[in-house]
Every structure is written in C-alpha cells, then in structure tokens.
Amino acid sequence: MKHLIFSPLIAAAVAVPFLIFAGVEMWGQVNSSPATPGSPGVTSPNAGPSGASGGPGGRGGRGRGGPIPTGPTPRTADGHPDLSGSWRDDGNAKPHGNLGKDYPGFKLPFTAAGEAAHSYNVEHTIDPESLCLPGGLPREDIGDGGFQLVQSGPDAVFLYMYGTFRDVPIDGRKHTEDPDPTFFGEEVGTWDGDTLVIDSIAFKDQKTWSDENADPHSDQLHIIERWTRSDAGHLHLELIVDDPKFYKEPVHYQRSWVASVGGHTREQACSENNFDVAGGHLGFGPGPIRADGTRGYDNPAPLPPPPSKDNPAKTTLQ
Amino acid sequence: MKYRFGVLTILAVGMAAFVAPVSAHHSFAAEFDGSKAIRLVGKLTKVDWSNPHTYFYLDVKDDRGKVVNWACEGGGPGALSRRGLAKGDLKLGDTIVVDGYRAKDGSNLVDARRVTLPDGRSIYGGTPGDGGPGDNGQ
Prior knowledge:
The complex is a heterodimer of chains A (318) and B (138).
Chain A: H1 8-19, E1 24-27, E2 85-89, H2 112-124, H3 139-142, E3 147-152, E4 155-159, E5 165-169, E6 186-192, E7 195-201, E8 222-231, E9 234-242, E10 251-259, E11 264-267, H4 275-278
Antiparallel strand pairs in A: 1-11, 2-3, 2-10, 3-4, 4-5, 6-7, 7-8, 8-9, 9-10
Chain B: E1 32-48, E2 54-61, E3 67-74, H1 77-82, E4 95-103, E5 109-116, E6 122-124
Parallel strand pairs in B: 3-5
Antiparallel strand pairs in B: 1-2, 1-4, 2-3, 4-5, 5-6
C-alpha cells in the first residue's frame, strides 16, 4: 500500500500541525515598502474604514498579491502535473464563499429537505468552523482561505487554516466497501490526462456547512473535484456537489487560485482563545446575507472619522 | 493625551507584494451589530495576542465618570502583524482609540475595525474575510 508510505516531506507537513493541535495560516512574506492609504488592511487617518462595505482596498482586493509565476506547468518525475505550491484566491470567485455564486439570484436548487436544512443552519447552528471543526468539503473549496498543496508520489496533501489538512491518495484506488464518515469524506484520486480528479463520498451528516452562508449538505453528499494547473501560476477547480437529499440537481461550481511565491503554512490554533464561543457571544448562522450574495450588512453605520487635532477622540457609547 | 496629531504615520507594510489568503473564523454579522458603531477611548489593561482572534481590553470612562472595562476583538496575530501592528505596539497603560461595532448580545465587547495608537497610527483591525465593514479578505 504505497499510500501509507509517507515521504519525510509529507510526514513533516502533516504531522507537525496535527500533533500540536495547531491551526495554520497561509501567508506570504511582508516587505517594508511604504503602503498607501488604500492598501489592503492599512488605514491612514484619512482612509480608515468608512463603514461602507468596501473599506480599505475594497472587496475586490482579494486577488491582490505578489507577481504570479509564469512558465509551463511543472511536472513530477512520472510526468504528471505537479500541483504543489501555496495557492491564494485569484479574486474572481464572486460572491465569495457562496456555493450558489453562478446561479441566478444565487438561488440553489434545494429540495424541501434541503430548504429545511438551510433554515435550520441559519437559525439554530453556530458556524461549525467557529467550533473548531474542520471546514471539510465542499467548504474548504469555496471559502476565502488559500491553502498549500504538497504533492508527493501517491499523495496530494492539502494544508488549510486552523490545523486542517487532508491527505488524498492519488494512485487510482477505488472506494472501500463501507468507509467511515469524515468531514472530507473518503477521497480517492486519479489522473484524467493532466487533470487530477478527486472523488469523495462518506461524509458526516450535516455537522458542517457547505459554504460560508450556511448552505447545507447531507450524508448523501458526493463530491467530484477536477484540479488543473494550466501553467506555473494558475490552479483551476471544477467542482460538482451532488447531494440528492438536499439538492434537486448536482451543483456546479468553479474557481481559480494563483501561486503565492514564498507563502507557507503557519500555526494558527483555533481553540487557543475561542472567546466568541466560550463566552456565548456568537449567534446562530452567518448573519444577514447581502444582496450581492456575500455575508454581512448592506449598510452598516459609518465609523466616526479618525481622530485629529480638530476632531479629538472622545468615547461615544450607544 | 498622548496622541500625536498632525502628520500621522502610514504603516510601512508591503501588503501589496505578498498577500496572505485567510478565511474568517466566523461572520462579522453573526456576532456584531452593524448599526451600532462605537468609539472607545481608554487605557489598555490587558492584551491577548491569540488565535483565532486577538483581544485587548480597555478601561473606558462613561459620561458619568464610571470606569468600565471593554473587550475589543481584532484579527488574529498573523493578520495584525502583516498590517504592521506588532504585539509590542500595545503597551499596558497606553491610551488607545478603538472604532468598531458592539456585540449583538449587548455585552461590553466590540469588534475593533480601526485602532489608533498613541503614536497616531491607525490600523485596520478587522478579521480577514469576515464580511464586516472594511473587509477585503486580507
């Protein structure tokens, strides 16, 4: 069973975050060049969050980053494409975090049971990722986070935030007779030309959300992922979410990532100080969903202007 | 008042060069009220430089002079560090200005969307990808 023979690289990549029960955070290098007031995450006295949903950098800033590598698709010794690398969102998957992004009005084709499950998630469940459960599939394919992929021999290992990983055997094996349900399901991978196809079944029943907006999945979930690295800098996913219990038809979803040179996986322990949950502050569901299909308020109250000589800071309680 | 008004420092962080894609631990709107913007000016009493969020605590005087301790939630250490806010920038006893939004449950908890330090720097404090005001996923 070649899959069980981890290379030292795979073993290190998987075991370290697992053993310390730590999370991981994808991030790249930071340089010291001056930022401008509009730079992501940076506010100047005159360019702070205005209260509008755009704010510094705007929502379209997700695709920003360093130079994207160019050149042909790298290949492994056996001739298959090498999908290894750190991958960040390309900024084009809009609305972010929404399984129904390509459906009219972002309306997913729920069955009656699926509609009920969605309502239950919104009204009665705390975001499972906030409870430090793995995002699982399909959420890890749909959410904002990037990931690191380590492909080595018969393994493709995906490293995500919060210590979450999945190790997919890509040696063409078949599903087992009665697999144990897991958050990522039983995953088997094979190559279809230059496309890595991962077929996953046997998921835990309704413990996780399908996306950031609390769309549901059942234990009948069947996921097909088709991963293609078209060149050195781009990775594309065609995703099929087939869940006849909750969806009238297979749901199709696609998005792309770009290579993040220098990015690597870092510790980020979800359970270190989970004050929101432990303190009972976090409400059910994702909160309101905007008209554009993203989670959040359409018209939040503006923040006061940043303090200045003419506008000294003073506490304003509501 | 220790704030240096006038020419304030723009953070020297090259965010545009290498960006960390991250995913929020939860939606802003699941916990905080977008209609309740708030400004807190108070002395820093405690810092939790922790995941999945950082927390810093301020003693804030209300209109009647009563001091109340507030918890201010920010992005994780990785996100704040990338924006140029180091743990050492938060010194106990310093007066900090926090602009943010109150928790829906009415507790003394705010989501810190903007933090202004005694040296005048203003830093975006939100959690990447939470869908809150100013969020751009980074």
